[in-house]
Write a structure and sequence with these properties.
single chain; Heat Shock Protein 90; 4 domains; about 40% helix; elongated; binds adenosine-5'-diphosphate
Length: about 625
C-alpha cells in the first residue's frame, strides 16, 4: 500500500470527516474531471486528425447498483497511464485544491468545500471505498487504483476493454445524521446532474425507469415499466444559452466553480455577436482582487474556445491590461483550433473581439458607476489602481477611455468623486482642479496648504496613490481645466489687492528672506513669503515639474536615479513667528539662523519627509525651550 502525500492526506481527512451538507457536489467534480478527460482526447484528435474520433463518440455513463451500494461514473476520455494515475491521484492537484490551501486560513473549512472545486477527493465525502479503473488512450494496459481513505492506496493492473476511466464509489452506509442512500437513487442523481452539470457538452447518460402505455393494451390502458438510457443534461454551455434562459444563480454558480472565487461577481456581461466576427462572450467583474493580482505572477486573460472547444486557458490578447481583472471566456466559431499563440497575437478576429469587449466592459463599469455607486466604490478599491495605471500608461493613449472611470477622494465631499463631479461643482470663475498629495488621507487633509482653499470653499482632490499625480500630469487637462498641485503651483486665488500687498511685503523683507536662504546653505532653492498659507507658519513647496511626491515615487523605483524636486521654503508673512524673525534679523542673526533651521525642519516633517539631522533638530528645539523657561 502506498501513502498519500501529506497535503493530500489533509484534504482527504477533511473529506472523509466532512460534516458538510452539500456532499452532492462530489458528482459535479467527478463529472467535470470526466469531461476534461474527453476534452483532452477530443482536442488531441482534432490536432492529429488520425484518431477517427468525433465529438459524438464521447459520453459519460452513470450506473447505479443498489444491491452492491455502488455508483460508477465512466468516461471514454484520455484515461491515465500508470504514472499518471500515481501522480494525479496520489498528490494534491493544482487548480481548485491549491486555492483551497491558500484560502483555508481565511475561510471556514466547511465553506471551502462548497465554494471551490475540491476535485477527485470529494468522492470520499460519500464513499468508503473508491476504485478507479483506467486505460490511457493508445495504450493496451489498464490499471486499477483503489483507496479506502487516508491509510493509502493501491495500484494494480486490471482488465479494461477500451480507453477512458471508470470511477466506482462504494457508497457509505446510512448513519443517523446522513442518508447516503440518496446517492443510489436515480432521480436524485438526475437532479444533481441537472443542477450542477447541465452545460457539460458531452451527454451524461444513465438508465432510467419510465412507465409507458403497453402497445397491445386493448380495452383498458395498461402500463409497463421500461428502462431507458436517458441523457440527463441539456449539453448547452451557459454562454450559448440566451440571457433570458439563464438565472442569476446559474451564472453565479458557473462563475464560482469555473474561476474558483468564493464571492459572487459584481457584474456579469453576457453577449453574443453574429456577423464579420461571430462570438459569444461571458465575462465577470470579480468582487475581490486575487491575492497575486498586483504582482508579476498574475496573468490576465480570458479562456478562449473555438467552436466550444477550449484552446487556451488564459488568452491575454483578449483583454487590455487595464481591464486585466475581468474573468471569463470567449467562444468563437471563426477561430481555427490549431491556431498557435504567436498567430493569435496577429489574428484580426481576435483584435476585433478585444476592442468590442473593451467597449462592453467600459460601458458596464459606467453603468455601475451611475446606477450602483456603492458597488462601484468597492470595485474601485480593488481595481482602481489598475485603471489609473491604464490612464497613465502608453503616454496617455487610453486616458480618454479611462478618465471618467477614475475616483479621487474629495476634501469637501469626504468621499471618492469623479473628475466630472468635481468640475460640475467648481466655483464660478474657478479655472483649475486643485489637488494635494501625501501618503495617507489624514496627512493630506491636514496639510497647511489646504487650509486656504478650504476657506475659500474650494474642493481639493486628495491623492494618496503613487501613480495619482502622474495620472493628472498625463491627463493634462480635463474639460478645459488644468490640474494644480496645491503645494507647487501658483494657486491664482488672490485678488489684485492681495497680490499688491503681498508684493509690497516681499520688497520690505527681501534682505531677511535672502539671509534665511543663505543660511540654509543650498537645502532650498528659495525662501519666499507664502501665498498659500493661512494659519500655519511654514510649508515646503516646489518649483518646476518635479513635485515632492514625484520625487519620492521616482526615487523609489529600481531604475529611478536621483531625481530632486526644487524645494522652496514658504513662510507665512501673517504669522506671529514671522514678526519674531523680522526682529531677530535686526537683533540676533545667530538665533535667526537657528530659527531658520528649525522652521525648515518643521516644513519637512509636515511634508512627510525625513529631516536631515534629527538629533541636531532636537537639540536646537531644547535649547529654545531652555531659553523660554
Ligand atoms: P483537478 O481536476 O482540479 O486537476 P482532481 O483532484 O479532480 O483535480 O484530479 C486530479 C487529476 O487527475 C486531474 O487533473 C486529471 O489529470 C486526473 N483525472 C481525474 N479524473 C480523471 C478522469 N476521469 N480521466 C482522466 N484523468 C483524470
Amino acid at each position: 500500500m502506498k501513502q498519500f502525500k501529506a497535503e493530500s492526506k489533509r484534504l482527504l481527512d477533511l473529506m472523509i470527516h466532512s460534516i458538510y451538507t452539500h456532499r452532492e457536489i462530489f458528482l459535479r467534480e467527478l463529472i467535470s474531471n470526466a469531461s476534461d478527460a474527453m476534452d483532452k482526447l477530443y482536442y488531441k484528435s482534432l490536432q492529429d486528425g488520425d484518431t477517427g474520433l468525433s465529438r459524438e463518440d464521447f459520453c459519460i455513463t452513470i450506473e447505479i447498483d443498489k444491491e452492491n451500494r455502488s455508483l460508477s461514473i465512466t468516461d471514454n476520455g484520455c484515461g491515465m497511464t500508470k504514472d499518471e494515475l500515481e501522480n494525479n491521484l496520489g498528490v494534491i492537484a493544482k487548480s481548485g485544491s491549491l486555492h483551497f490551501k491558500q484560502e483555508q486560513e481565511k475561510q471556514d473549512e466547511i465553506d471551502i468545500i462548497g465554494q471551490f472545486g475540491v476535485g477527485f477527493y470529494s468522492a470520499f465525502m460519500v464513499s468508503d471505498c473508491v476504485t478507479v479503473r483506467t486505460r490511457a488512450y493508445g495504450s493496451d494496459e489498464a490499471f486499477q487504483w483503489q483507496s479506502k481513505g487516508a491509510e493509502g492506496y493501491t495500484i494494480t493492473p486490471c482488465d479494461k476493454d477500451s480507453h477512458g476511466t471508470q470511477i466506482i464509489l462504494h457508497i457509505k452506509p446510512n448513519t443517523e445524521e446522513e442518508q447516503y442512500d440518496e446517492y443510489l437513487d436515480p432521480f436524485r442523481i438526475q437532479s444533481i446532474v441537472k443542477k450542477y452539470s447541465d452545460y457539460i457538452r458531452y451527454p451524461i447518460q444513465m438508465d432510467m425507469e419510465r412507465s409507458r402505455l403497453k402497445e397491445d393494451s386493448k380495452d383498458q390502458p395498461e402500463f409497463e415499466t421500461v428502462v431507458e438510457r436517458t441523457t440527463l443534461n441539456s449539453m448547452v454551455p451557459v454562454w450559448k444559452k440566451r440571457k433570458s434562459e439563464v438565472s442569476d444563480e446559474e451564472y453565479q454558480r458557473f462563475y464560482q466553480e469555473k474561476f474558483f472565487d468564493f464571492q459572487k461577481p459584481l457584474r456579469i456581461i453576457h453577449s453574443s455577436t453574429e456577423g464579420v466576427c461571430s462570438y459569444s462572450a461571458l465575462l465577470f467583474i470579480p468582487a475581490n482582487a486575487p491575492a497575486d493580482y498586483y504582482t508579476r505572477q498574475y496573468e490576465k486573460g480570458l479562456q478562449l474556445y473555438a467552436s466550444g472547444v477550449m484552446i487556451m486557458e488564459r488568452c491575454g490578447d483578449l483583454l487590455p491590461d487595464y481591464f486585466g481583472f475581468v474573468r471569463g471566456l470567449v467562444d468563437s466559431q471563426d477561430l481555427s483550433l490549431n491556431i498557435s499563440r504567436e498567430m493569435l497575437q496577429h489574428d484580426r478576429q481576435l483584435q476585433l473581439i478585444e476592442s468590442r469587449l473593451e467597449k462592453k466592459i467600459k460601458s458596464e463599469l459606467e453603468s455601475m458607476l451611475t446606477n450602483d455607486r456603492e458597488t462601484y466604490e468597492t470595485f474601485f478599491k480593488n481595481f482602481g489602481l489598475q485603471l489609473k495605471f491604464g490612464a497613465y500608461a502608453d503616454y496617455g493613449a487610453h486616458k480618454e477611455l479611462l478618465q471618467d472611470l477614475l475616483l479621487f477622494y474629495s476634501s469637501s465631499e469626504k468621499k471618492p468623486v469623479t473628475l466630472k463631479e468635481y468640475v460640475s461643482r467648481m466655483k464660478e470663475g474657478q479655472t483649475h482642479i486643485y489637488y494635494a498629495c501625501g501618503d495617507d488621507l489624514a496627512r493630506v487633509e491636514t496639510m497647511p496648504q489646504i487650509e486656504l482653499l478650504k476657506d475659500k470653499g474650494m474642493e481639493v482632490l486628495c491623492l494618496t496613490d503613487d501613480v495619482d499625480e502622474f495620472v493628472f500630469k498625463t491627463i493634462g487637462e480635463y474639460a478645459g481645466k488644468s490640474f494644480k498641485n496645491i503645494s507647487s503651483d501658483d494657486l491664482e486665488l488672490e485678488s489684485e489687492q492681495e497680490k499688491q500687498s503681498h508684493q509690497e511685503q516681499i520688497e520690505q523683507n527681501q534682505d531677511l528672506l535672502a539671509f534665511m536662504q543663505e543660511s540654509l546653505d543650498g537645502k532650498v532653492a528659495k525662501v519666499v513669503l507664502s501665498r498659500r498659507l493661512k494659519s500655519h507658519p511654514v510649508c515646503l513647496s516646489t518649483e518646476g515639474d518635479v513635485t515632492l511626491e514625484m520625487e519620492k515615487v521616482l526615487n523609489a523605483m529600481p531604475s529611478g536615479g536621483q531625481v530632486k524636486a526644487v524645494r522652496v521654503l514658504e513662510i507665512n508673512g501673517g504669522h506671529p513667528v514671522f514678526a519674531a524673525l523680522q526682529s531677530l534679523y535686526e537683533k540676533d542673526r545667530e538665533k535667526l539662523k537657528a530659527y531658520t533651521d528649525l522652521l525648515y525642519g518643521q516644513a519637512l516633517l509636515i511634508a512627510g519627509l525625513p529631516i536631515d539631522d534629527p538629533a541636531a533638530f532636537s537639540d536646537q528645539l531644547c535649547r529654545l525651550m531652555e531659553q523660554q523657561a
